[in-house]
Amino acid sequence: MYSSSESIANENFLVTNIQRFSVNDGPGIRTTVFLKGCPLRCAWCHNPECINPFNEIYHDTQKCVRCGACAESCPEGAITPPKKVTKNGNNAVSNNSCCSVPAPQAAAVDDVTFNPPVIDRDKCTMCMKCVDACKYGAITKAAAVMTLDEVLDDVVSDEMFYKTSGGGATISGGEPLFQPNTTLALLRAFKDKGISTALDTSGYASWKIIESLLEYVDLMLFDIKTLDDEKHIKWTGVSNTLIIENAKRLAKKGKPMRLRLPIIHDVNYWDLGHPRSVVDFARQLGGSVLGIDILPYHSLSESKNERLGRQYFFKGFPNLYKEDLQDYEEIIRNGGPWEVTIGGLIGVKRATA
After folding, report:
1. How confident is the model at residue 108 (pLDDT cuts 50, 70, 90)?
2. What positions does the domain Radical SAM core occupy (predicted)?
3. Distance between CA 176 and CA 213 in Å, rounded?
């Protein structure tokens, strides 16, 4: 058995976001808690800040004033100071004297600009001294260190909206099952307050972990990236065998679930065999499948990856919209009795049948 709520009540864990008034992560109005850490490496990941289980830094060059304080604070020499660049016709002469012109004035000096500091992520030890040194919010922590009580206070504050809309709290990530103790404690705490719960998961975890949480979960939001194992390994880094087995086990337990289908360029877009295979799979799961949510690719993670200093495979790929996925919707809607959405907007209703 995993740790109780009481045993981690005063422990700290990493939360990248607490999204209030969420309407795409389960029924009704919800608060979604995003935990850090995931065993998958989805090439398109919409929440890349949630992948690694340790804290990281965002570097937003749009907010940077090129003052150089971050470079001066770094004990590892991992940050190259801002570079002054003087334009001379089509040529440029640069040097490392970043502070010869005060940062706020730099933009006003004719033909002189400053390139932002560059962080060597391989040298960085995540000491966070640059975060403390930056007074302009250009370098920030990707996650907040929080306690169970702090998260619970945030979630409970919107309790009246849950009651009137059939909403509740959703735990997401990353992969919540990657932090089973924290997830279990949060779910128990929510249920103790009479708050309906949903768990947004890839299903990639041991059955022992999943089974230990079930009595505290009202609705599973179960991701299906692709049912083709070879593609799954290519695009996420892991096999889907365990995921499929866990979905079938949940169905045997009669646990209500919604299948969540991210539709991604090159992975499962322009492939109508994908929605057909999902229909076949959902039929195998039977009455446990309350709905199927089609989630179109969006490019918001492109800027997140840039701020995290990462390469992004899908850089420049366009967003997908509802009209792009009408064939998917029709195939899935005609395939069974389940509710179908594009985008996950379920509306006001109860989480269980």
Report:
1. very low
2. 24-337
3. 11
- CA distances (Å), origin 154, targets 30, 32, 108, 149, 169: 12, 10, 44, 9, 10
Give the integer Cα–Cα distance in Å for 223 and 199. Answer: 11
Average pLDDT over the chain reads 91
What sign does the dihedral 191-148-21-251 (CA atoms) show? negative
What pLDDT sits at residue 220?
A: 98
Q: In the prediction, which pLDDT does 11 show?
A: 82
In this structure, what are the phi and psi dihedrals at residue 32, rounded to the nearest 5 degrees?
-105, 125
Structure tokens at 153: 């206070």
Written as one string, the DSSP assignment of 96-125 is S-TTSS-HHHHTTSTTEEEEPPEE-TTT--
Cβ burial, residue 202 (10 Å; 0-12/13-18/19+): buried
For residue 258, the SS3 value is strand
pLDDT by residue (tens digit) across 111-157? 788 899 999 999 999 999 999 999 999 999 999 999 999 999 999 99
CA-CA distance, 352 to 290, in Å (whole number)? 8
Q: Is the pLDDT confidence value at 103 over 50?
A: no
- Domains, the chain: 6-56+143-342 (3.20.20.70), 57-140 (no CATH)
Closest by Cα among 322, 331, 344, 342 to 272: 331
Axis-axis angle for helices 241-252, 273-285 (nearest 10): 40
Distances (CA, A) of 277 to 62, 80, 331, 341: 44, 50, 10, 17
Asked if 175 and 96 touch (Cβ cutoff 8 Å), the reply is no
| Longest CA pairwise span in the chain (Å) | 72
pLDDT for residue 107 = 44
CA 162 to chain centre: 22
3-state SS, residue 8: helix
Query: Which candidate, 62, 111, 59, 56, places its Cα nearest to that of 84?
Result: 111
Average pLDDT over residues 146-173: 96
The residue among 231, 167, 225 whose CA lies nearest residue 201 is 225
